[in-house]
Fold these 2 entries.
Entry 1:
Amino acid sequence: DKIPATLIPGDGIGPEITQSVVDILDALGSPFAWDSQLAGMAAMADGGDPLPLATIESIRRTGLALKGPLTTPVGGGFKSINVTLRKEFELFANLRPARTLIPGGRFENIDIVLVRENLEGFYAAMEHYMPLGHDAKAIAMSTGFNTRAECRRIVTYAFEYAVKNNRRKVTVVHKANILKALTGLFLEEGRAIAKEYEGRVEMNERIVDACAMQLVMDPWQFDVIVTTNLFGDILSDQIAGLVGGLGMAPGANIGTSGAIFEAVHGSAPDIAGKNVANPTAMLLSTALMLQHVGRHDLAARLDKAIDHTLTVAKVRTRDLGGEAGTREFTDAIRHHLA
Ligand code: NAI
Ligand code: MG
């Protein structure tokens, strides 16, 4: 019996890279029965609602989704659907593993797993403007929050991940020197949880700005990183840059009763519809989804075919210096499925 799962093609390059996944999974013997649903700009254009009830109900039913990137208007417009979905299904952990797949780049042998708190911090911020004189928007206010319970839950998730995946170290990244309450609480819980894992998993601490520098100077010192929402968002794009760019970085949003898998990157409107998008991040997210449902066999075959295509056959998309289009690259992976 197939596993019911929601498929959201998304905006921009979303439909192209989602098609890659569907084609390759078909060739692999997909364990999923897709329920295709709309969200984001595509849903706006269809029915005027960026997050239709049918989409929410589908994910509630399946508890499992693969999602293409969604465009979020900057400034006004509607609120980020990504943030809304994470909240709606309480997907508290955002897992973003990054591994060097192509040798000979600026950085070799990178293998870092970033665990980002996904529900709180400045992404749950209450924002508003305050007037001064004639300027209605003279002052911009933002109030973020972190709860002790959520700090505990995300740090515990990172340490448990380390134990289960034979990782030796968890780095807690914060800015407790300045945001003494907001990220001080996170650090406090990080230290407390680390004690429970003493002797099994090493713990260290980094202030986020210094961490950003060290990620470039000596990324090999990092193993698992756990951090708050905003810092995690920024550092995960930086880490993607260490392994070849946003086209190579997969992600998973995980909760206790559901999971949504998606690439780290956005809808890339600059290259949408041109058959040049790199579907690797979306495919690696699919591999994470296969692992999540216990199909480690299929995940391994998919990972292997991606690896072979990139490093042995050397078929690569433009962002990796190659010439293959999205479709040609997809065909090559399909051809290399063992
Ligand atoms: P972006 O990640 O879409 O693109 C940044 C740069 O990376 C662009 O030059 C793009 O062409 C390139 N790029 C991204 N993915 C690529 C791929 N698979 N292959 C080749 N090149 C790739 O970030 P940007 O431009 O800041 O945001 C565009 C839109 O995406 C915004 O509306 C933003 O809100 C949304 N977004 C959505 C996310 C999601 O759905 N999870 C995550 C991040 C951004
Ligand atoms: Mg981001």
Note: The longest helix spans residues 148-164.
Entry 2:
Amino acid sequence: MILDPCAIEVHNDRLRGKHRRAFDFVSHEISHIEDILEKLQKFQIAIPSWALGTGGTRFGRFSGAGEPATLEQKIEDVGLLHALNRSSDAISLHIPWDIPKDANRLKQFASGLGIHFDAMNSNTFQDQQGQQHSYKFGSLHHVDPAVRQQAIDHNIEVIRYGEELGSKCLSVWLADGSSFPGQLNFRQAFQHTLSSLQEIYRHLPADWKLFVEYKAFEPYFYSTTIGDWGQSLLLANKLGPKAFTLVDLGHHLPNANIEQIVSLLLMEGKLGGFHFNDSKYGDDDLTAGCMKPYQLFLIFSELIDGMDEKGIAHDSGLGWMIDASHNLKDPLVDLLQSVEAIKIAYAQALLIDRKSLREAQNQNDVVAAQEILQQAFRTDVRPLLAEARLRTGAALDPISLFRTLGIREKLVEERGRNSVATGL
Ligand code: PSV
Ligand code: MN
Ligand code: MN
């Protein structure tokens, strides 16, 4: 056991006095504090298996040390995060990077750490060893039916693995696109994608969801066949009630109004979930909230408004996940930072005075509307998050505990300096 369970108690006892003062100061001003704390305690964000090791760019990869080399070790890492913050109770697997060899044993191992299996991700953007057909020119949209069938079969196989693990969702992201004008017949590519997804949808268990993720560009640079939320929504609508759009914050063209996209997808009942990360330029996959925390807050503002209007539970109605890549920081610390930033934005959005905001909107009082939003955004909610952690047995300050306990050093000792996580 890398993390001694008593260590959290000792740590919390040491910080309790300081925390209490900060919490009392901010909580006096908030009328529905207990409601917010309850919501914060419930709110969980899934961790992708591929974010637990060093990412890398197309120019290089500078490995960290003590990375999880096996699926068990990846689950162990998420268990570690969850023990520290009690906010990351699920792992999302990517096949074939994470083939479960003995699903029952893995399920047991994970549940012993309080972890379950979130969305399953298929991979038709890389060729695997021994694969018959290449995905160089796409997968589900390919001109050759044999390539499409191979990609369809892979997705069905991923569903089967997910069923064994107790997952309830298949997440499909396609690299399929083109890099040169004239390369593709757009309508044919879309129709092929649709009929391939329809075939996969037919194999989806009754209580599963299918998430269709979009991305504006990369790895191809002229067109992406599922390039934006319109194309994803079109597919999800044609597929049926179990299909939804997945929004990855890094997958838009610069300055896209993501909060407006989210608001309308929710209105249509077609928002499936999120991949949280942050970016300055493109799909930078940086720590959530490190560049545009106000945007993250505005997204949560729309999410809460839309979910409350439809009676969707905040903690279980949508798929919340991080999709980030870690090149400079320790992946586990970076993930703790992302979870914290996401929950800060969530807590701030819970503070918005909705009634006054509606009144301001109905009176075209632009100044009041802005003041109301910024009043919530500028509140320091960190003591609220800490209090929610304290009440669930998590650490008051997970990052400092991770560091003072030398957790990475212990992982290096156990796993070795050169262990490398499978993934991107
Ligand atoms: C693609 O950029 C993406 O965001 C998709 O979600 C993939 O599944 C993930 O990254 C990992 O490659
Ligand atoms: Mn993603
Ligand atoms: Mn991405």
Note: The chain has one domain: 44-347.
